[in-house]
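Quick one, probably user error.
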C-alpha cells in the first residue's frame, strides 16, 4: 500500500513539472497536505486498549487471515504479542522503545508440531559448553559476559623469536601459561557460574574453569551477547582485570543445555523481568519454518505498531477516502499555484480504494463515484465522524462482496 501511494503521488506531480512548476512549490503543497491528512487521521483514530488480549488478538489476526498459519491464528497472535510486550521498554519521555529486530530473535528447529512454538522468557543459543566436564544445568547462575579472548594474546604483526637454549623455550611457554592464569584468576575472584565470551577459550583456561566448577561458552555472536546482557542484568566486560561485582548478572533463574536432533542448545530461562526474548519455532521442515517465520514477523510488526501508538484506523480504503474528501475541502482555502498540487494529493489518495475495486473486479468508476457521494453526504450532515462511518460501511461492503457473496451488498442499502 505504501509503494502504491508513493508511486501515485509521484505520478500526479509529473504534469506540474511538465508545466515548469518549481519542485519546491510542489513539495511545499505536499507537506501542507500531509499535515492536514495527519490531523484527519488523528480525528478518525480509535483508541486501543493494549492490555486487552482479546482486542489485541483481533487486530493482529487481520494480517494472518490469508496466510499459512491462519488455522493457528490465536497461537501466532499470542506469540507476536508476548514477544513485543517482552521487548518493550518505557522511556523517560513517556514513549516506548520496541526493538524487535535486535532483541526478539527467532530460532527455528525442524521437527515437532507447530503447536509447540513458544516465547522463552530468556535467551536460547546454538552453543554447547566448551568442556565435557562442565556443568550443563545451573539454577540461579552468576553470569559473566566478555568480549575478549581467554587465551594468550599473539603478536599483532609478524613476530620472529630466536631461541638458543632449551630453557628459553620453557620460559616462553611458562609466560603464556602465566598470562592465561592471571586472566582466569581475575575472573574467578568474583565466583561466576557461567562465563560467556565472544572470542575463544584456550585449553588451559578450560582446565582452570573446570577445576573451579565454572561453565564456559565461547564464540557467541555480539547480538546474542547483547540479548543475554538484557535478560541477565550483566554488563559486557572488555578486559578481565576490569571486572567488578556490578558486572555480574544474577537475573537468570535457570541455565540448561538441551539436545534437539543432533545439536546442543543452551537456554538461559526464568529470567526476572526480561527485556529480550527468543521465539522458538517448531515445524515439519525448513520450508515450513521459513514461512512461519515470515508470517510471524508480519504479526510482530502489527503488534509493535499498535503497542507503540495505541490507535487504530479503518481499513479497506476508508481512511484514504476520508483524507481525500478532507483535502478537497481544505483546498478551497489554499491560495496561489499551490492549490493545484494540493488537490492532486487528494486525487492520489483514491488510488487505494481504486486498486481494491480493480482487484475484486468491481466497476471502478461507479464505485468511486458512489464513495465520493456518500462521503460528501456524511460530511455535509454535520460531523466528520459521520463521514468516516459511511466510508467504513461502503469499503467493508466491498471486501465482503469479494470474500463472501454479492448479496452481502444489501448491508449498505439502508
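Nope, works fine. Designed sequence:
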Amino acid at each position: 500500500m505504501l509503494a502504491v501511494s508513493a508511486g501515485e503521488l509521484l505520478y500526479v506531480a509529473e504534469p506540474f513539472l511538465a508545466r515548469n512548476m518549481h519542485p519546491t512549490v510542489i513539495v511545499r503543497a505536499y507537506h501542507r497536505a500531509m499535515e492536514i491528512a495527519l490531523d484527519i487521521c488523528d480525528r478518525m483514530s480509535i483508541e486501543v486498549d493494549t492490555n486487552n488480549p482479546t482486542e489485541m488478538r483481533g487486530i493482529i489476526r487481520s494480517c494472518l487471515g490469508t496466510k499459512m498459519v491462519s488455522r493457528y491464528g490465536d497461537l501466532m497472535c499470542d506469540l507476536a504479542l508476548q514477544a513485543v510486550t517482552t521487548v518493550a521498554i518505557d522511556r523517560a519521555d513517556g514513549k516506548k522503545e520496541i526493538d524487535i529486530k535486535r532483541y526478539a530473535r527467532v530460532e527455528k528447529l525442524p521437527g515437532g508440531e507447530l503447536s509447540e512454538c513458544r516465547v522463552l522468557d530468556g535467551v536460547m543459543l546454538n552453543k554447547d559448553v566448551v568442556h565435557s566436564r562442565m556443568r550443563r544445568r545451573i539454577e540461579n547462575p552468576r553470569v559473566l559476559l566478555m568480549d575478549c579472548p581467554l587465551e594468550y594474546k599473539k603478536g599483532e604483526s609478524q613476530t620472529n623469536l630466536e631461541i638458543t637454549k632449551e630453557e628459553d623455550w620453557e620460559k616462553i611457554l611458562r609466560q603464556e601459561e602465566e598470562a592465561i592464569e592471571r586472566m582466569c584468576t581475575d575472573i574467578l575472584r568474583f565466583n561466576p557460574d557461567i562465563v560467556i565470551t565472544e572470542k575463544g577459550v584456550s585449553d588451559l583456561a578450560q582446565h582452570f574453569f573446570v577445576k573451579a566448577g565454572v561453565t564456559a561458552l565461547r564464540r557467541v555472536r555480539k547480538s546474542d551477547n547483547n540479548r543475554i546482557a538484557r535478560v541477565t542484568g550483566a554488563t559486557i566486560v572488555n578486559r578481565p582485570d576490569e571486572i567488578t561485582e556490578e558486572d555480574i548478572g544474577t537475573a537468570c533463574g535457570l541455565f540448561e543445555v538441551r539436545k534437539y536432533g543432533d545439536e546442543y542448545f543452551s537456554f538461559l530461562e526464568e529470567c526476572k523481568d526480561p527485556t529480550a526474548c527468543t521465539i522458538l519455532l517448531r515445524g515439519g521442515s525448513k520450508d515450513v519454518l521459513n514461512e512461519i517465520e515470515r508470517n510471524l514477523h508480519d504479526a510482530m510488526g502489527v503488534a509493535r505498531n499498535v503497542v507503540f501508538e495505541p490507535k487504530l484506523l479503518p481499513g479497506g480504503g476508508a481512511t484514504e477516502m476520508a483524507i481525500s474528501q478532507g483535502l478537497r475541502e481544505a483546498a478551497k482555502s489554499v491560495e496561489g499555484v499551490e492549490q493545484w498540487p494540493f488537490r492532486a494529493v487528494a486525487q492520489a489518495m483514491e488510488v487505494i480504494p481504486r486498486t481494491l475495486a480493480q482487484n475484486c473486479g468491481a466497476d471502478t468508476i461507479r464505485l468511486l463515484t458512489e464513495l465520493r457521494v456518500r462521503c460528501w453526504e456524511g460530511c455535509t450532515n454535520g460531523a466528520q465522524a459521520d463521514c468516516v462511518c459511511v466510508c467504513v460501511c461502503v469499503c467493508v461492503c466491498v471486501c465482503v462482496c469479494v470474500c463472501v457473496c454479492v448479496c452481502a451488498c444489501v448491508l449498505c442499502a439502508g
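Residues 163 and 172 are 10 Å apart (CA to CA).
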